[in-house]
Amino acid sequence: MSAAILFNYPEFLVALLLSVCYFLLGAKKNAKAAMLPSWLTEPATAAISCLPPSYVGWLGRLQTYSGWRTNTAFGALSSAKFYPPCLVLFSAVILPVPAAIALSLLSFFVPDVIMIVLSKRRQQQIRDALPNALDLMILCVDAGLGLDATLQRTAQERTPTGQALNDELMTLSRDVVLGMDRERAYQELYNRSGVEELKSFASSLNQSAKLGLSIAKNLRNQAEFQRTKLSQKAEERSARLPIYMAFPLWFCIMPALMVILLAPSLIVFFENAPH
What's residue 61's pLDDT? Predict the structure, then answer.
C-alpha cells in the first residue's frame, strides 16, 4: 500500500475530523450525547490528566466558558482529544511517519479550536444581552422588587439571544438563595463566564450592597456604560474594515480590473506594432 491511497481518498480523514466536531457540538447542546461509558472515558481522562496542569486547567476553563458543565463533560472532551489521534496514528501504515504524526497532532488540537470558538461565541452573546437585561432589572427594581427577586425575574426571561446570560443569572440567584456569600457569588459569576463586563456588573452590585447606594441608579449607569462600550467596539470594528479590504482590493480586484481595462489596448498595440 502506498501513501497515495490516503491522498486519493482524503474523505476518510475529513470524515474523522467532522465527526469530532459534530460530537462536541452535539454534546454541548444535549448532555445525553456526552454520556459515554466509563470504560471509554476513564482511560482518556487519565491520559489527558497527565498533561501539564496549566493546559488541563485551560481546557476546564474553556468548558466552563462554553457552558458545557455536566459531570461527564471533561470525560467526553478527553475522549474526543485522545481516541481520534490514536486512530490517525494507524495511518503510519500507508503514510510516512512524520506525516502521520502531523495528522495526529492536528486531530488532537481540533477539539481545542472548537471549544475556543464556542466559548468566544457564548461570551459575545452575554455581552450583547447584558444591556437589555440591565434595563429589565431597572424596571423590576423601580417596581419594588428586591435584588434577589430581580435576578430571578430577569433570569426567567427566556430569549434566544439572552439564553447564556439568563443561565448565568439563574445560577447566581441560586447561589445566593442557598446561602453563599454575595461577594463570593459575584466572583463565581465572573469565573464561570470569563466576561469582563459581568465582573464590572458584579463589582457595582457588591459596592451598592456594602455602601447602601441606590441599586436602580447603579444599574442605569451600568446599562449606559455597557451600551457605550458596545457602540465603541462596533466603531472600532468598522474602522478596521479598510485595512481588511486592502488585501482583496489590491491583489484580487485590481489585477482583474487592470486586465479588463488594458487588455484590449495591449492586443491592438501588439497587432499593429511593426515586426
Answer: 92
Please tell me what DSSP assigns to residue 48.
H
Question: Quick one: which of 76, 215, 238 has its CA closest to 148?
Answer: 215
Query: Rg of the chain's alpha carbons, rounded to an integer?
Result: 27
Q: Helix, strand, coil % (nearest 5) of the chain?
A: 85, 0, 15
pLDDT at 6: 47
Q: ∠11-33-79 over CA atoms, to 5°?
A: 65
The mean pLDDT values, 10 residues at a time, for the chain of 275 residues are: 48 60 57 63 87 91 88 86 84 76 87 91 89 86 83 79 83 86 87 87 81 80 84 84 81 82 81 72
Question: Which pairs with CB-CB distance under 8 Å and at least 24 residues apart come from 200-203?
Answer: 200/225, 201/130, 201/134
Instruction: Compute the distance between CA of residue 204 and CA of residue 222 in angstroms, rounded to an integer.
Output: 8
8-state DSSP, 274: -
Residue 264's Cβ-count burial label (10 Å; 0-12, 13-18, 19+) is exposed
**Which cell numbers in the block locate residue 75?**
470525560
Query: By C-alpha distance, which of 105, 114, 87, 88 is closest to 21?
Result: 114
Distances from the Cα of 32 to the Cαs of 24, 42, 75, 223, 247, in angstroms? 12, 17, 13, 37, 45
Task: Copy the grid coordinates of residue 241.
Answer: 474594515
